Amino acid sequence: MTTTSTAPAEPTPAQLAAAHGLTVSGARPPLPRYVRELWSRRHFVTAYATARMAATYSTAKLGQVWHLVTPLLNAAVYYVIFGVIMRAGHQVPDYVPFLITGVFVWDFIGSSINAGTRAVHSNRGLVRALHFPRASLPLSTVVQLFQQLLVTMAALVLMLLAFGQTPALSWLLAVPTLFLMAVFAAGCALVMARVGSKNPDVSQLMPFVLRTWMYASGVMWSIDQMLAAGQLPHWVTTMLKTNPAAVFIDLMRFALIDSFEAHSLPPHVWLLATGWALLAGVGGFIYFWKAEEEYGRG
């Protein structure tokens, strides 16, 4: 009687990799670890944003001045069209401060979303070559635009003073408004970064979507004046009142413009702004994180 011995089965590559602590390249880490990795690269995010900001107008003679000139030119065009030709400013006290504040706030929100759409796709080479939290890319675009917003806000204060606005304690409310705006814009940029990474054509459509959104946000005209006429369907009224861009614009106008300070905002406006910031910020971050493994493919 003879006995045969069975050789132990050779481990599979997957078993060997697991035994030695190897993981799939670009695999999605658990959410808590992903947040820690992203935080550890915060210096890269800010440095990348600063470098992009410096390079934006590096070939222009006026350089970084264009960060301020561009929204001012937009405001001047809107003033001629809506304030003079269409007489929208006749029903709005302090129309020039009203308009400039709306343009500056919208410029940040709209630009963040538009830039986020291309954040991953336009950096596909970097995404494929290096391993890092991909959320760094859309967040760096928002940090860049927020840096520009701080410059324009400083200029906005000077313009408000020139048009007769007086400093008040309510101006401090601009700080939490800026924070909530930044969280909201970052969340929207993360959502659009994931969408744009798989559908590059979305970036061609976004200018039309954002232009429509801008007109519905009361940048150049007063939503309250329109609603007071009572000629809109209920669902349109609800959409205008809860429009996140319009909420942030109203909060900033309330903080900085004298004629708005005279009318206290309903408490639910701050709750609405906080809700939009949390929904977009937390929801957008998780939505982007869930596709972390897919950004380097294709």
Overall description:
Helix content is 68%, strand content 0%. The chain has 298 residues and is mainly α. The chain has one domain (37-294). Helix 7 (136-162) runs antiparallel to helix 8 (174-198). The chain is globular, with a radius of gyration of 24 Å.
Order of helices and strands: HHHHHHHHHHHHHH
The whole-angstrom Rg is: 24 Å
Taken from the alpha-carbon principal axes, the silhouette is globular
Number of strands: 0
Report the oligomer: single chain
Mean pLDDT: 84
- Intertermini distance: 60 Å
Helical content, roughly?
Answer: 55-70%
Structural class: mainly alpha
Instruction: Pick out the low-confidence regions.
Output: none
Count, helices: 14
Layout: helices, strands, pairs:
Elements: H1 13-19, H2 31-40, H3 42-56, H4 66-85, H5 95-119, H6 124-129, H7 136-162, H8 174-198, H9 202-215, H10 223-228, H11 234-242, H12 244-256, H13 258-261, H14 267-289
Helix pairs in contact: 3-7, 4-5, 5-7, 5-8, 5-9, 5-12, 7-8, 8-12, 8-14, 12-14
